[in-house]
Amino acid sequence: METSRKMLRFHWLDNFKPLAYFWSILLLVDIAQVVVMRYFPEITNSSNSFLFSANYGAIAIYLLVCGILMATNSFPLLMSFGIPRQKFYLNLIGTSALLCAAMALMQNIVVYGGYQVTTLLGVTVEDSIPAFFPLWYSQFTFYLFDMFLFTLLGTVFYRFGTLPGLIMIAVFVLVLNLSPGDLDFAENFELTAPGWSGWTVSHLFLGMAAILIGIGWLLYRRAPVRTY
Disulfide check for 141: which of 130, 151, 165, 202 has CB 3.0–4.6 Å away? Predict the structure, then answer.
């Protein structure tokens, strides 16, 4: 338990400043968006775009970078401190889940708070906001899948080298190109696909994240400890 607390503290200290900078910049951009919608609506040419939709992509990019860094930097560092692999990986899962849950919650607060602010300023936002929990859950499951997907990618680069990693990137791109064309994240994060409900897609992401976690552990069990 003491080891787990120390690892959580390590990840917290390692991520605090980057998270603070990330959200500071994101909130400034969001505030600028509200100002533009209120005083310069002709720039956006529309008042019905979903609030802060660009945040979702920014958060996903931040988390995928975190996943790669945890796989390639945190693993050898913590192994050098004598941390058992199983404890490291369990802590990695817990830290990733907490980070994804917190990012989804923060974005929910931004969306709901921004909606209230725009209403007070007299800006009409025609697109409806999904209910709080479904919006949080859909983000959380996608962010978790996103983070572990790129944790796995970082693990492949770390253990097998550049060529297998590039092959895995090519597979990712192929899968994205074959995904349903109207699987929509950007507009309102009500994840949908033909014939599927938002809950079904979110559960699917959660299941795929669990599979990625299992594959990642199989790779980490005997991964050599090295630095670049």
Answer: 202
